[in-house]
Amino acid sequence: MPTTLYNRGLDELRxxxxxxxxxxxxxxxxxxxxPDHDYVADLTPGTNEIAGAxxxxxxxxxxxxxxxxxxxxxxxxxxxxxFGSIVAGENVTGMVVYRLVTNDADSILIxxxxxxxxxxxxxxxxxxxxxxxLLYVDQGA
Length: 141
Prior knowledge:
- The chain is mainly β.
- Helices cover 7% and strands 39% of the residues.
- It has helices at residues 7-12, 45-48; strands spanning 4-5, 21-27, 58-59, 64-68, 73-77, 81-85, 91-99, 108-119, 124-127, 135-138.
């Protein structure tokens, strides 16, 4: 499954380096990414978000926004994430990035990243951000 960009979230990237952006982990409860979803609450976090002991949502750090005129795109990047030592037995299937406003009802979805199915082990759960960046938006072909 490819990365899903949420329609409303694309407009939120204009302040990527100054606003607070966070990430959360999705479990195997069956969430299907929908580009028409707008807010974290649309994910039904009580059902679809990891809830095991040791887990916490993470703020994106060391954020950069780079305009690449050669490739006609803007690249958004951040430091790798560590979601804590999540108790064994959870199945992580994806990560969602969002812009934090005040709560789940008004925090705007940016992108869903499929991670396959990764079982937690009680050890730290890192998500390594690609060397090419968290995401990029280009002019298309």
